[in-house]
Write a structure and sequence with these properties.
The protein is of the alpha+beta class. Helices cover 56% and strands 12% of the residues. It has two domains: 137 residues, Arc Repressor Mutant, subunit A, CATH 1.10.10; 57 residues, no CATH class.
Length: 196
Amino acid sequence: MSLRHGFKAEARRLALEVRDELGIGVFTPLDPYALAELYGIEVHDLRDPSLPTEAVRHFTGERPDSFSAALVAVGTGSVIIENHVHDPARRRSTIAHEMAHVLLEHEFGLLFTDDHGCRTSSATVEHEAAELSGELLIPCQAARMAAFRRWTDVSVARYFRVSERMARWRMNATGSRTVVRRCTNKWRRQVAHTGG
């Protein structure tokens, strides 16, 4: 399922607006928990004693990869339930993803769990949330700056506090290294042509 026309540009604009609301620049690592707090979304984890013990045991021990987080309607608001056994980089990406649903004002749909984790019934909604969360965590402009600095995926991941997989995806999805390579080649041709 592809994103609707113009959504990537919309996600870039929205991510920069949100970063501005948080008072952080384009190259500053974003704290998804601070974003949730800014929007009044409480974040809870599976240690909550009100949750069914058997389900908690399943999602934290037997099948921890089958549940990352969920945005749950509570009264007129919502909360995020996250899986606290995942590593911090994955949890940050997960919270950013759930907050993307909030920012995009996605309606609550049917949630289901399969071997790939929990999903809504709409692939388009999930793709939009993934695109915006990636843009929130590593904006296109930041990815290009990292590419000009010749950062590896490991360096990008470490700096932005995300997984290497997320860093690789953002560097590839933004085309940042391709842009830098083309600029460098163009500059070299110009220098060679002018004899400089």
